[in-house]
Amino acid sequence: MSLFINKRSSVGVNNRHQKGFTLVEIMISMALGLVIAGAVIQIMVSNSVTEKLNRAMASTQESGRFIINRLRAEMLMVGLYDQMNPKLNLNVDIVNENNFVRNHPVILPNEFAVRTTLGAIQGSNGGNDTLVVSLQSNMDCRGYVLGYANDEEFYVVNEYFVDDNKLKCRGFDGRYLRGQKAAEGHNSHKSMTILDDVVNFQVTYGVTDLASTSGSAIPTRFVTADDIQNAINDGKTIVALRIALVVRADSDITVETKPSFRLLNEANYTPSDNGLYKSFETTITLRNMKNFVRSKA
After folding, report:
1. How many CB atoms neighbour CB 86 within 10 A?
2. N-terminal to C-terminal alpha carbon distance within the chain
3. What is the pLDDT of residue 3?
4. Most CB within 10 Å of its CB: which of 13, 45, 85, 227?
5. Comparing 36 with 138, which gets the higher pLDDT?
6. Looking at residue 5, what is its pLDDT?
7. Of 7-11, 136-140, 160-164, 189-193, minimum mean pLDDT range
8. Any idea where the domains of the chain sit in the sequence?
9. Which of 146, 125, 128, 124 is CA-nearest to residue 137?
10. How sure is the predictor about 59, in pLDDT bands with cuts at 50, 70 and 90?
11. Where is the signal peptide (predicted)?
């Protein structure tokens, strides 16, 4: 009987030493768990936003580098005309054509009777500019040969402009524009988008004085498209271009404060929303025009 009593007593002692979590301890644990979970979620959200921002910035930077490099490559050839090039199509008076291209590296409105509105235009009230240039090439800015053989070179006129936040270009056969031949090939003159999300496009033109250049052909000043004709009448020649543009990130990233950009001669430009924007600018020497000016010195 005493053995039985001792066993019950031992069980009772063990039960008295067993403890669970109190309500306060459970509530504290839950609170700590919520704090930790909240911190983890915040870190994940922050990392996601940072990654999205980095992608948007990288994409915008890449778009800007692409368009600046492309425009530089194409503008470097403005004013090019090589009468000795064996690939040049000879179905027109190339001496006359050479003189025309050299004296019209940038096309102004009313240069061509078949398309009087084609020409470099200064956008009003800070609006987008239009750039139109001349050169000898084997294709226009869209990659079309306009009815010529694939290896032939001819007089090309390229137009660059912004429409619906897209930087576009279209090319023309200069000989068609001058009334020397009928339009052939891809002469529908439909534009082609070369970069999306371009919200501002500005151009100024570096001019030098043929009479006082002393062979340097360094631009003495930069003018807008509205002032080109006056500069030409004053004995100036275009030898450089400055191009500036603003690109918007192709994402829904927003910034707290709207950015503001000063592009060339224009007043400050502020986008209409709080998206991510970046500006790009380059100065391009028209080496063919500089050589032309030097040969006149």
Report:
1. 8
2. 132
3. 45
4. 227
5. 138
6. 46
7. 7-11
8. 52-296
9. 146
10. confident
11. none
| pLDDT over 90 at 257, yes or no | no
Rounded CA-CA distance 187/175 in Å is 12
Residues 6+ apart with CB under 8 A from 33: none
Count other C-beta atoms under 10 Å from residue 129's C-beta. 25
The span from the CA of 229 to the CA of 207, in Å, is 11
Please give the torsion angle defined by the CA atoms of residues 144, 149, 152 and 153, in that order, rounded to the nearest 10 degrees.
-30
Q: Both tokens of residue 288?
A: 């063919």
117/170 Cα distance (integer angstroms): 14
Q: What are the tokens at 229?
A: 């004709």
